Amino acid sequence: MIKSTLRQPRFPSRVGAFAQQFNVVDSNDKELRRSAHRMRITPEVPVPQLGQLSSLWPQVHRTAARQRLEQLYAELRRAAAGAPDEGAYRQQSQAAQALLASLSEVDANRAAVLGRSWPEPPSRLGQAAAEVRSNFETELGKQSMRRIGLSDPEKLVPRLEELERSGTLDPMVSGRLAMYLTQ
Question: To the nearest whole number, what is the mean pLDDT of the chain?
Answer without folding.
Answer: 76
